[in-house]
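#data-curation
PF: Archiving a pair of folding outputs for the training set. Convention for this channel: one message per protein, sequence first, structure tokens after, nothing in between. First:
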Amino acid sequence: MKIFTGAQIHELDQYTIEHEPIKSIDLMERAAKAITHAITEEWSDTTPIVVFAGSGNNGGDALAVARLLIAEGYKVKVVLFNISNHLSEDCTTNKNRLLQTKHFNDFTEVKVSFDPPELTADTLVIDGLFGTGLKKSLAGGFASLVKYINQSPSKVVSIDMPSGLLAEDNSCNVRANIIQADLTLTLHQKKLAFLLGESQQFLGRVKVLDIRLSEEFIEKTNAHYLALDEADVRKKLLPRNDFAHKGTVGIALLVAGSYGMAGAAILATRACLRAGVGKVIVHTPRRNYDIMQTAVPEAVMQMDYEETCFSEAVDMEDIDALGIGPGLGQQENTAIAMISQLRRAQCPIVADADALNMLASHRAWMQQLPKGIIMTPHAAEFDRLNGTPSNSDYERLEKAQNMAQTANAYIILKGHNSALCLPNGNILFNTTGNSGMATAGSGDVLTGIITAFLARGYHQEDAAALGMYIHGLAGDLAAKDLGKESLIASDIIDYLPDAFKRLKD
């Protein structure tokens, strides 16, 4: 699914108006009906409602919703802010329609100052002040109003997006001046900001309302941001040949585990095997031999010369994919062996965990990375890798996007909506996963899954996209049965078969 910017959404609206064809005011009415329906599903007509409307089309939506709610028997108070003494054309039309509504007289148009209405725990606030057209932080009276609403005990429903929140970049935004919604009823699609962790405190629950915008425009318009859905993933899955054998479905090499961190190697190995690879060779220190053989008897063990760490790059002949980093440690001899292993590899690579930390400690090596490498940093690992801290999720995403282009790499910036940054500048957001997966070893599992897909012959983009989606889906299935609190990394592996079966059905 394409994720359009605020500017593109405006273009989509205009294209729909011109080519459906439909009048702008009628498209607004269509949106208002969808919003009203969503509200009436959750709140009864005994709920007192206060509508705060701005002077633009977001305000026009709010005024139309107020009128429709009144028609459904709700008691509605409306406050329209017209500070500049200029309403958009559709906002003006909906103001006039509202004022013509029978038995409605609780309307205030604010042009200078006003006394805010009392907002109780029983009150439902509908926030229609600002939408995707907002370009800067709120200030002055609107900032004060936002703080007043946020400090009240009322429930808040935001139309399209919480007022004060910008559609993309909130790096320099004033967080105190953003509505904290309980429910956001967004039109057509989630906005980019909705996919970033820093915005979650403002959104509450999010419902996407389909208002039937132009499919033609959506199809032909390029988008730099995309959200993976199940249909996308099903298309990427390759069939498994009935005559396949272990040599034809990939040989993976995992360089993982140091003394005391054998668990990371076990998790990556088990995940790799569960993701359908034919054979997994694990290169690990000698002291891990017994535990690895016991924990994962299906894997082939390859012992390092050192007892406790990875110390020397190994032969890569007949290897289809390399996964390196889980539990590897960061000793200097390990770092030298790691960069040597990356240089030696003639196959696709996944670098994670300590491999990334060692690259961060030797940033000159970043220029020597093989083209097409997949890196899977979480936020802190990426900041170390980049060499500078990020002030916001959006800034970090931009940096990852730039690094992917500069290094010709595939970078999975891990988080609730993990973002796969591609060498062409596009970004794929994952839509599976849950907070129960925020547990030690979860990243090792992801490394194993992606390495398996690479070894099986998937292109880096597809391997990374499928890996993060199926990893998250297995986590969701596990959380459904076990709960988020009790979820551990090995549970994700245990639910991989169910995840694959769901996608194959």
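PF: Second:
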Amino acid sequence: MSVRVRFAPSPTGALHIGGVRTALYNYLLAKKSGGQFIIRIEDTDQSRYVEGAEDYILNALEWCGIVPDEGPKTGGDYGPYRQSDRKSFYKQYADKLISEGKAYYAFDTPEELDEMRERLKEARMANPQYNAISRNQMKNSITMSAEEVNQKLESGEQYVIRFKMPKNDDVRFKDVVRDWVVVNTTTLDDKVLMKSDGMPTYHLANIVDDHLMEITHVIRGEEWLPSAPLHVLLYEAFGWQAPQFAHLPLLLKPDGNGKLSKRAADQLGFPIFPLNWTDPETGELSKGFKESGYLPEAFMNFLSLLGWNPGTEQELFSMEELISEFSLERINKSGAKFDIEKAKWFNQQYLKNKSNDELAQMLKAETNIDVDFELLSTIAGSMKERITFISDIVESGDFFFNAPQTYDEKTVNKKWTTEAVHKLTDFANEIGQLESISPEEAKEKFMEVLSKDNTPLGKVMPALRLALTGAGGGPDLMEIISILGTKETASRIRKAIEVLKTSN
């Protein structure tokens, strides 16, 4: 059977990067195996539905390059791909479990459920829940006659359908990441399968859908591991073969203490969503990785290594290389610390590997800068070793586009000397006569000026940089001179001399 995997987000808000990683791992396995990657929207919890969340999720995955073979937009032979459009499927399977004595109707009111929990707490039950023991004292089709049950159903009395958990039985399954998992049913409760509003819970819906969509591998977050024994039992109850499970490790805060959350990300000042997200209730804007300047390929590379180890020292992977190298067996059991500095490093590397023209095109697309494309390409090339984001070319390289209006005070105090001013004056006079100049020619002219009285390079170079850029550090100075041109270079030197007073 061909590998078929799904990513099944709930449209209850923005897509967290943990969800993006889950989608990525599913996608990588599908592509490596020549199988299918499916997106299914799990919108059974209508009370938590957020308008616009589904579109956001689909757009975010598209930006990441995670393109489904089947899904709400793509279509496919196993649709519909929204659970709200599959409602009729779930009731018939829930009814099947009831008819076979594997599930039951429960008519308990919220007040009666609260009373049950209080009774169990008073009896010092370690885990007060609706289970194989407590169900025998509750208002359900196990404790009631068939006639009573039918009367309640016919009268329209509200009910839920619960799974009848087997008594004192060991549930065993092998997880790709966790190896063998064994849980005794005495620790499990009779989970609700169908809610009183007629919608299925996640537990029933995802089992039915995964079966009908012929899903072979369920790759999901660690938070679903406690639910896995129930899901295994549901597969057995239906007489279906369960898929292969793989529960992914948590993404942890940078210090390793606890699960990475939006709150933690906000406090530490980094994004946690792939795209900008505006909370429809509060109007709060959360900046995304895209809008923060990250390249999708860098973002994917970074996320892929948060929980997966290729087994080599290689860190930079194209999507094609990730597909080739990926395996579920190399997913780590322990949580992965989220390191935003590492994310920045990946972005740096991907920008470095782009051509100057590519960087110029990106800059044109992201800014309103009105500069000749060839010149912009040259500027981008001079800055690419020093940037983390494409916007840094404009922000850190503002001096390419605008003459400095202020000058670094520390450099002025230390390096702007009478001696430096004399040499800069000579240099400006020399190059001001030329039409153009290469970095090599600029260096040669500068050294000629210094050599007249053997002035050390370090006595004048910082002052020259200060005059041209306003800063004490930056890209190669001779390259800057070549890009600015001879006239602009001479003009900036003379302006600095006019504005700044020598301190010694």
